[in-house]
Each structure stands twice: as structure tokens, then as C-alpha cells.
Amino acid sequence: MTGGPDARVALVTGANRGIGYEICRQLAERGLRIVLTARTSAEGREAAGRLARGGRDVRFEQLDVADPASVEALFRRLAEGHLPVDILVNNAGLYTTTPLLSIDEPALLTAVQVNFLGAWRTTRAFVPGMRDRGWGRVVNISTGYAHLASEPPAAGAYGLAKAALNALTRMTAAEAGPRIKVNCMSPGWVATRMGGTGAPTSVAEGANQQRAPGNAEPAGTASPRWARSAALCP
Ligand SMILES: NC(=O)c1ccc[n+]([C@@H]2O[C@H](COP(=O)([O-])OP(=O)(O)OC[C@H]3O[C@@H](n4cnc5c(N)ncnc54)[C@H](OP(=O)(O)O)[C@@H]3O)[C@@H](O)[C@H]2O)c1
């Protein structure tokens, strides 16, 4: 189960619980070295400790994706520790459904900070290193609410920010070049704190859409770079 020094390194944001935690678990099971990040140190450390039991290679790093200084500090810590990020999973998310015509500006900005700008910050920080090393994967966790072509626009600032995340996916895929694959995936409606207990998709299925039926369509990025499985990171 251990990653070993030559194993790929995967960094997952918002991974103290929910889909992010499960992505860490599934990738660790595949032998990857995991950097589990969370904005709250106590929760992140506890989650990483739970996964590391049984010999998995999982370490915790504090990261608040809404804070540019936090992203820069993490980048520096990993660079100083000579830990290259090969796979980046932008999972941290915040569900803000207030309609756009009634939401106040601070709430809208918070939704954009977490769901969109956070992913842009980590992508900008870690993709240049991937490019230098000639290999890399980025998976952005999106949602059907961002699929503007087929869904009625819904979910307010959340859908807006995730639509921007889809656009970021396509544009950074083009900028990053052929050796770096940038995808996004929609986990479906998943039984996490965000999805609630009535959600039909388990966390394990949500983290690996290859096993979940009914989620075959991409949510906004009708592109060959679309991936349905964060756990596989093809
Ligand atoms: N569940 C669903 O039905 C569903 C459907 C479509 C898409 N998604 C997407 O899947 C991803 C994971 O969602 P989930 O269902 O696992 O939700 P969740 O259980 O609510 O987990 C969200 C995670 O994001 C973290 N987070 C929030 N703001 C952050 C910040 N500023 N910096 C770092 N981490 C932050 C949370 O940390 P704290 O514990 O500190 O709050 C938590 O770890 C999200 O991107 C979500 O939009 C979920």
C-alpha cells in the first residue's frame, strides 16, 4: 500500500471529509503518495492520520484555497521539501444557492473564491512544475449545475463559479500543453455534508464516476479531455 519514493504525488484540496477524503483514500489504495490538504489543521491532520494507518503514504498540509498567501506558503513548503505535485485534484467547494439577483456581493465573492479562484491559484502554482517535469494531471471537481447547455441555470453563485471552473479547465488544458491533462468531473448527487443524506450516490461512487451509473455526460466541458474519474486520473 505504501507509495514509495518513486510513486506519483497527488495533492487534493478540501480533503478532510466528503469526496476529497475519499479521492485521497482511493488514490492511496492505488499506491500514490498523497498530500491531503484542508483549511482546518486539526481536522486535516486527523483525516490524514486515519488514512495513513495501514501503511498508506498520506501526509497533511494546511491549505485554505480562498487565501492566496496560503496557496503560496504551501507551494514553498512542498518545494523546500522536494515534493513535486504530479496530480492536482481541485475538490474544495462551497454550496451557495442564493439567486444571483438577491445575493449580496461578499457572499458571491466567497463562492467565487472557493469554487473558482481557489482552483485557479493551485493550478497556477503547480502546473508549471508539472510542465517542467514533462508529466502532470489536474482534475477539477465540477457539477451538473455548471452545464449551461442542458440544465436550467440554477444554484446561484455556486453554478456561476463552477461554470467558470469549467472554462478554466478548457483554457488551462490548452495552455498546459500535451503532456499535462486537465480534466473536470461531475461526481453526481453525492451523500456528503454538501449533498445531504438523501443523495443517491455513495461517496465512493462519487469519487470514482466510472462505477456510478447515470453520470456519463460531461458537465460543461464537451472535450476529449473530460474525465469521469478523479480516482483514475487517466
Ligand atoms: N455532494 C454533491 O452532491 C456534489 C455534487 C456536485 C459537485 N460536488 C462537488 O464536489 C466537491 C466536494 O464536495 P463534497 O460533497 O465532498 O462537500 P463537503 O462534504 O461539503 O466538503 C467540502 C470540502 O471543501 C472544503 N472547503 C471549503 N472551503 C474551503 C477553503 N476555502 N479552502 C479549503 N477547503 C475548503 C471543506 O472544508 P471544511 O470542512 O473546512 O469546511 C470540505 O473539506 C465540491 O467541489 C462540490 O462542489 C458535490
CATH superfamily: NAD(P)-binding Rossmann-like Domain
Order of helices and strands: EHEHEHEHEHEH
Low-pLDDT sequence parts:
211-234
Count of all domains: 1
Mean pLDDT reading: 88
Structural class by sheet pairing and helices? alpha/beta
Strand order of the main beta sheet, please? 3-2-1-4-5-6
Number of helices: 6
CATH A-level architecture: 3-Layer(aba) Sandwich
Largest β sheet strand count, sense and barrel closure: 6 strands, parallel
The fold-level CATH name is Rossmann fold
Protein topology:
Elements: E1 9-12, H1 18-29, E2 33-38, H2 41-52, E3 58-62, H3 68-80, E4 87-90, H4 105-133, E5 136-141, H5 156-176, E6 180-185, H6 203-207
Parallel strand pairs: 1-2, 1-4, 2-3, 4-5, 5-6
The chain binds NADP nicotinamide-adenine-dinucleotide phosphate.
Residues 13-14, 16-20, 38-40, 63-66, 91-94, 114, 141, 143, 186-187, 189-190, 192-195, 199 line the site of NADP nicotinamide-adenine-dinucleotide phosphate.
Concise synopsis of the structure shown:
The protein has 234 residues and is α/β, with parallel strands linked by helices. The chain is 39% helix and 13% strand.
Question: What does this protein structure show overall?
Answer:
The chain has 234 residues and is an alpha/beta fold. It has a single domain (9-232), classed as Rossmann fold. 39% of the residues lie in helices and 13% in strands. Helix 3 packs parallel to helix 4 and helix 4 (105-133) packs parallel to helix 5 (156-176). The chain is globular and about 50 Å long. The structure holds NADP nicotinamide-adenine-dinucleotide phosphate.
